[in-house]
Structure formats: C-alpha cells, structure tokens
C-alpha cells in the first residue's frame, strides 16, 4: 500500500505542476477576456434566468428543465470539497490558498459558461432517445474526426474519475465525520449510504434531477445559515481573516499546524487544485448534466450553468473558510494548552471543519458540518453517478449503464473504509487527466463560444425576453456571426 500511495503522490505532483495551473487559470482568463467579462456583467441576469428556468417552454427540447440541470450539476459540485477540501487547502497551503480558490472560481465562471454553451451546441440524441452531451461530444462534433481520440480520452478518464472525485472521496469524508462525532463504524455508514444511493440512481437522470431539485437548495441554505451564525459570533475577527487571506496569497505562511513552512506555490497549488475539486470548472463534468437541459439557446443555458461555480466557491466555500479562520480552539503545544485559530490545530480535512464549527457553536456546530456532509455527499454521489455512466455509455454504448450503476453502488461502500490521503491524491490525478482534453477543446472551440454569445440577445444585450437565435446545426463561427 505504501508503494501505491507513493506512486500516486508522484504522478499527482506531475499532473498538478505549474503547467496545469497555467492551463486552468489561463483558459478561464482567456475566455473571460474574449467574452468581454460578460459572465461578470450578466451575473444578475443569470440569477433571474435561474429562477425562470424552473419551467421550460413547451417547444424546448431536452430531458430536464434548466433549473434542474443546474441543481443536478450543483448536486455533483457541492460536496466534500466545500467542507473537507477547503479545510485541506488551508491546512496544507495556508490561508492564502483561499484567495487562489476565489481566482479559480472567478475565471472558472467563464470556463463553465463555455462548457455549457458547447454542450448544448453539439449535443446528440442517444439510442434510447435521450439528449446527451458533454466534452466528448463537443470534441467529436466540434473539432471533427481527427480529434475524436481526445474525446475518447476524456470519457475514459471521466468514467474512472467519477469513482474518486464523485464517489469514494465523498463516502470517505462522510464515514470519517460520523466516526469522529458519533462513533459510528465506517462499515455501518457504508451500508446505509449504499442502500439509499442505489434506490435513487437506479431510476436514472429524471429521478436524480427530481431529488436534486429539492435537496440542493435546502442543503445550501441550511449550511450557509449555520456558517453565518458562527461568523456573526466571531464578526470582530472577519477583517483579520480577509487580511490574512490576501497577505498570504503572495507571501506564503506556516501551515499544517503552524509548524511547517508553506511557500506561496503551495498556496497556489492547493488553492487551485481544491478549487477545481470543489467547483469543477475546467473538468467539463457539469456540461454532461447541462446537455440534457430543455433549451434552444446555448448562451442562456450557459449563464445559468456558470452560477454553479459562483454558488459553490464564492458563496459556500467562503463560508467554510471564514469559520476555520475566525474560530479559535484549544490546542496542546509542547504540553501547554493554548487557544489558537482552528486552522493551526494540526487537523485537516473534514475533521478540521468539524472542530472549527464545533468551537464556533458548541453542541450545534459539529452537527452543521455533519448534516452538511450528509446532504453534500449524498447529492454528489447522485450527480456524479450520472456523469460517470454517460462517459461509460459514450465508450461502450447504453448497454453498459446498468453494470456501471451497480459498480458505482459497490464503490460507495468501499470508499467509506479507504484511507483518506490515497483517495484525495487519486482524485486530484484523475481531475487533471480529465481537465487536459477539455481545456484544449475549449481553447480550440472558443471562436464558437464567442460567436454564440454575440448572437444571443441574453448575453449581447441582457434581453431576457427575446426569442433565442436560430442557430443552424453544426454551425461554424462564421455562420453564427451572419
């Protein structure tokens, strides 16, 4: 096992090196500038579209409403990355990692917008009559047969990555918290979680979307409300927390308990990696859910889709970070108990978050984390099961869907008893391998994204009531600009 962990860690260090950080941030920045910062300018319109998207027009084609596609994407996105991932980023990269999570999210809004636009533009109808899409389809249909191999690679990595980022990591963190807070054996958590997940995912996308439609708004509101209550109690420390984040984003700081030095590159590395793990901008995963949305206007759906990144990181992750940075807890240092900020306690992952929330609201805070993790993990397991099965179906056809679902359910139990460090590193590696073909495709197809955005009245003029443009099938950028 030690050899496997060492090998995964070594590969992880390579794929998440400077080149990957530049590719992720660079792609997002390139799209944001190319769009004239439209995602930021149209943010209020995007929220209005989100609520309008609860009902789709009678002539719209797709499987689920735009609101349900966002909730399904958020179900997969808001997970342990918002609780354990933020804590890990701060513990290993210092408070400055939060700044790089924000930067990843801001440019990631343009990335997520582009992914959704291309997902609708190049989606297909599968052998069962369902609308399907995602990076593998816009690579194949948008870039042509010469690039089909890259679409195959994305689907291959996504089908495998789901078992890490969307399955075992989620189950592992939940089992860890139940063991620490309530003494529940990991196998018991695994049995219950496995059973409930099976009941839902066996019903396919529409059942997943129906659950996500109700659970995601509820869980986000409960978690944010609990976090705000703790932040309110410690409001005097909030300005210092923000100052610490900005100052250490460029200087580095002591992390991992306050004893090991962490250079600035560690803050960037963990901030970007955990930011991507949390909001998935650049992975292309959310595009798989958005491809099934009932819409005729790719740009309109793109605006709704980019809210996933904003809600996940700018809102939810920030809540977790502020609690960890403002709450003090008793920590034993050289035999003497001292009151130190929670992030300097030496803990990491979900355990650090549970300690911080428990210190902020004794007797209640731990259960905010526990309830948040239960809901976050459950919905992520649902959303990512759909991503994985669509990737597998792209590779092997629709006949593989049922076996994939059964394998998915089995790995939920396995994830509850696997060592956390190995699972995290494996997930980070798979994220990078998924992101590479997707980011290359986004750059090569950026002309189509820009052209669609110029022709849509929603993105070009902010006109939410105008009919969508008549975009020809398999349109080229030149055709879109006519």
Describe the structure.
This protein has helices spanning 2-15, 18-34, 38-41, 43-52, 66-77, 80-93, 96-121, 135-143, 148-182, 186-201, 204-233, 238-251, 264-279, 285-290, 298-326, 349-360, 365-396, 401-416, 420-444, 446-455, 457-461, 477-481; strands at 124-125, 131-132, 253-255, 260-262, 328-333, 336-341. It is mainly alpha-helical and 482 residues long. It has a single domain (2-326, 348-481), classed as Amino acid/polyamine transporter I (Up-down Bundle). A two-stranded antiparallel ribbon has the order 1-2. The protein has a two-stranded antiparallel sheet with strand order 3-4. It has a two-stranded antiparallel sheet with strand order 5-6. Strand 1 and strand 2 (131-132) form a beta hairpin. Helix 8 packs antiparallel against helix 9 (148-182), helix 9 packs across helix 16 and helix 9 (148-182) packs parallel to helix 18 (401-416). The termini are far apart.
CATH topology: Amino acid/polyamine transporter I
Radius of gyration: 21 Å
CATH architecture: Up-down Bundle
Low-confidence stretches: 254-262, 473-482
């Amino acid at each position: 096992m030690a050899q496997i962990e060492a090998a995964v860690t070594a590969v992880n260090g390579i794929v998440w090196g400077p080149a990957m950080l530049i590719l992720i941030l660079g792609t997002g920045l390139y799209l944001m500038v190319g769009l004239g910062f439209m995602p930021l300018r149209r943010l209020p319109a995007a929220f209005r579209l989100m609520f309008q998207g609860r009902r789709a027009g009678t002539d719209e084609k797709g499987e689920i409403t735009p609101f349900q596609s966002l909730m399904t994407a958020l179900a997969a996105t808001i997970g342990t990355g918002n609780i354990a991932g933020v804590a890990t980023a701060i513990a290993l990269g210092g408070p400055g990692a939060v700044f790089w999570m924000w930067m990843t999210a801001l440019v990631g809004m343009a990335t997520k917008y582009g992914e959704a636009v291309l997902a609708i533009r190049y989606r297909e109808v599968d052998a069962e009559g369902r609308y399907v899409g995602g990076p593998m389809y816009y690579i194949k249909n948008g870039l042509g047969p010469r690039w089909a191999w890259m679409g195959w690679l994305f689907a291959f990595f996504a089908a495998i990555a789901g078992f890490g980022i969307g399955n075992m990591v989620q189950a592992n963190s939940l089992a860890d918290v139940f063991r620490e807070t309530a003494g529940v054996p990991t196998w018991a958590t695994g049995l219950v979680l496995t059973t409930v997940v099976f009941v839902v995912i066996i019903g396919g996308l529409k059942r997943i979307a129906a659950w996500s439609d109700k659970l995601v708004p509820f869980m986000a509101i409960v978690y944010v409300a609990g976090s705000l209550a703790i932040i309110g109690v410690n409001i005097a420390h909030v300005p210092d927390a923000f100052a610490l984040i900005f100052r250490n984003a460029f200087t580095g700081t002591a992390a991992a308990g306050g004893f090991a030095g962490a250079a600035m590159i560690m803050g960037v590395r963990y901030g970007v990696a955990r930011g991507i793990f949390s909001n998935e901008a650049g992975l292309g995963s959310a595009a798989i859910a958005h491809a099934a949305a009932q819409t005729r206007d790719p740009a309109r759906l793109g605006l709704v889709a980019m809210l996933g990144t904003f809600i996940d990181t700018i809102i939810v992750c920030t809540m977790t970070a502020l609690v960890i940075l403002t709450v003090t807890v008793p920590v034993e240092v050289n035999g003497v108990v001292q009151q130190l900020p929670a992030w300097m306690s030496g803990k990491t992952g979900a355990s650090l978050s549970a300690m911080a929330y428990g210190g902020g609201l004794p007797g209640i805070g731990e259960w905010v984390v526990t309830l948040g993790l239960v809901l976050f993990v459950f919905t992520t397991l649902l959303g990512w099961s759909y991503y994985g099965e669509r990737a597998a179906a792209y590779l092997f056809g629709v006949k593989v869907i049922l076996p994939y679902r059964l394998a998915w359910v089995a790995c939920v139990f396995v994830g509850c008893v696997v060592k956390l460090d190995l699972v995290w590193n494996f997930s980070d590696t798979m994220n990078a391998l998924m992101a590479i073909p997707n980011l290359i495709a986004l750059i090569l197809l950026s002309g189509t994204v820009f052209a669609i955005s110029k022709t849509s009245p929603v993105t070009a003029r902010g006109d939410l009531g105008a009919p969508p443009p008549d975009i020809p099938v398999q349109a080229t950028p030149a055709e879109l600009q006519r």
